[in-house]
């Protein structure tokens, strides 16, 4: 394999030779490139391919992600989990009014990582939620609800927490805690990168500028292509919730495992 240093230098010479409008400069750059190619035995076609790879610029994409079929129970909690992961991976999302799908806007590697994390965490969320419901622990809790008496008058009474309420509370809390975990990991990873570049102010500034430019590109794509109307309000239901189920959901999220770096798409590392 050609030495990377010489390959990069040769690619730069070719780029200069092919971009200048001055014929004399073009000849000089091409001659220099040919001499270097001869000395290092690097084919000019290989160098041009290297240039193309270096200059190939990734751009944001919009991808539809299926969440589940209409009518699936607790579907909005699945969306909440996806959004929690998306926010930690620089994605902006539009949501279907019935929560059956999400349109993710962001760089392709970020979307891939988000999907890999979601695919793993949603399974863990549902399994943990099912196990909690089977335990029956939520039945120890009661909540306030309305009830009509024989005369049709409405009274506020204490009722046992329903299983569907416990499931919603558990999975909503799970999604929230996962978002917190990933957000904390992202903040720490960014800070660590900037600390490592502290001795090189220009590198640190470059990293911050790159992050800003990345966010602006995603925002620009979203502004140009999104057709969303209104705002998504998440789970509203009856307004009832289960404190015990919420606590259990957060504990399950703390124990949840994210995929290893080998299982994530190339170019991104697993979050702790």
Write a brief structural summary.
With 272 residues, this protein is mainly α.
CA-to-CA gap between the ends? 35 Å
Give the total of domains. 2
For the sheet with most strands, the description reads: 3 strands, antiparallel
Structural class: mainly alpha
* Proportion in helices: 55-70%
Shape: elongated
Uncertain residue ranges: 267-272
Strand/helix succession: HHHEHEEHEEHHH
Radius of gyration: 27 Å
Q: What percent strand?
A: 5-15%
User: In what order do the strands lie side by side in the largest sheet?
Assistant: 1-3-2
Mean pLDDT: 79
Instruction: Say how many strands there are.
Output: 5
| Number of DSSP helical runs | 8
3D structure, described in words:
The chain contains 8 helices and 5 strands, in the order αααβαββαββααα. It has 272 residues and is mainly α. It folds into 2 domains: 52 residues, no CATH class; 204 residues, no CATH class. The protein has a 3-stranded antiparallel beta sheet. The chain has a two-stranded antiparallel ribbon with strand order 4-5. α4 packs across α5, α6 crosses α7 and α6 runs parallel beside α8.
Features:
single chain; 272 residues; mainly alpha; 2 domains; three-stranded antiparallel beta sheet; two-stranded antiparallel ribbon; 5 strands; 58% helix; 12% strand; elongated; disordered C terminus
